[in-house]
Amino acid sequence: MDLVQLICCWGKDGDLVSGNSGFQHLTFIGSRPIAKRVVTKASEVLTPVVVELGGKDAVVICDDYLKKKGIEGIASVLLRGTFQSAGQNCIGIERVIVSGDRDNYEKLVSLLQYRVDKLRVGSDIDQSEEIDMGAMIMGDPKFEELEGWIKEATEKGQGRLLAGGKRYNHPNYPQGHYFQPTLIVDLDPTATIATNEVFGPVLSVLYAENDEKAIELANSTPFGLGSSIFSTNFKHANELCKKLKVGNVAINDFATFYVCQLPFGGVKESGYGKFGGEEGLRGLCVEKSVCYDKTSLIQTAIPKVIDYPIANGKKAWKFVSSLNKGGYDHSILEKCKAIWSLAKNSS
C-alpha cells in the first residue's frame, strides 16, 4: 500500500522534501543542525515530525555489580557496545561510568586495555583476514575531529590514553577509512570528547564515587537518547533508571530496548517523539474521536434549564456549577450536595 516510504535525496533538495505538503508525517534521523532545517521547512506546511538526533549514551556500572559478577562479562558487553560497526551506532556506548570501589575500576580498565590492544582492524570483503572492526563511512574530516578531541583531553590532563587515538593506514587497503580502536580512561566529564557525540570506535571510561554521582555524570551532557544500568539489585537499578534523563534504558544489558522494538526516541538534544512499537505506529496515525449512544434507552438531551434562549440565568448557572462540582470535586460531601442541587435546578 506504500504507506511508509524511505526518502533519499541530495542535500540541495532537502527543503523540497521537508516542505512538501503531500507528506502526512516525517521521521528524521540525523544531526541537530539538519534537524532544525527539516523542522523549519515542515512547519511551513504543518507536517508533524519525529526527530532522533543521536546521543551520548552512558553505561552506569554499580559497585555491587562488579563485586558480585566480576569484570569479564561486563567487559564483553562494553566492547561490543562500543566497537560494533566501528562505533557508528546512535545507541552505541559513548561513556562507561564505573561507580564505587576504585580497585574494581582499575581491574576493569586493565582488562579493557588488554582486549582493546588485541582488536584487529581491516576489511572482510575478500575473507583473507580475521578482523574485529571494519572501516568507517567518514574519512579525514571526522578523523581530524576525533584526533583533536583525544589530543586535547590528554594534553589538558583530562584523560589517560591507553590504546589507539589515531587513524589507521591499513597496508592492504590504504584507501579505507580506518580508525584505531581507542581506549581513554579517567576521563574528565567536561572534556570535549566527553560531552560531544563521538560516533566512532572510542571507549571512554569515567570514575564516580557512588551511584548518585554516576547518575549525575550520565545526565551531564545535552543528549538523552539511551543508556544502561548494571546492578544486581533490580529495585536499586529501577530507582536509578527513574533519575536518568533519557528516552530509553536497558537494565543489566545493552540496547535491548531497541531489539524488543519498544517505542524509541530521545529527550533533550537527542530529539523528540517516538518511532517503533505500538506507540510509534499510533504516532503515524490520525486518530479520530467518535462519541455515540450505545443504546436507544439512554440518549443525550439538553436540560430545559440551559436550553436556548435561557429562561432563568441564575438557575442555569446553579445547574452548570453543580454539574462541574459533582464531576470534579474531591469531597464526597460536596459531590452529594452538587447532585442535590442538580435535581433542584434541572427544570
TrEMBL record:
Q: Report what the protein is called.
A: Unnamed protein product
Ranges of residues in domain Aldehyde dehydrogenase: 14-290
User: Which keywords does this chain's UniProt record carry?
Assistant: Oxidoreductase
- Any coiled-coil regions, as ranges: none
Family statement: Belongs to the aldehyde dehydrogenase family.
Which GO molecular function entries does the Swiss-Prot or TrEMBL record give? Answer: oxidoreductase activity, acting on the aldehyde or oxo group of donors, NAD or NADP as acceptor
Which residues are catalytic? 52
**A single Pfam family, by name?**
Aldedh
Gene3D superfamilies (UniProt xref): Aldehyde Dehydrogenase, Chain A, domain 1, Aldehyde Dehydrogenase, Chain A, domain 2
InterPro entries for this protein:
Ald_DH/histidinol_DH, Ald_DH_C, Ald_DH_CS_CYS, Ald_DH_CS_GLU, Ald_DH_N, Aldehyde_DH_dom
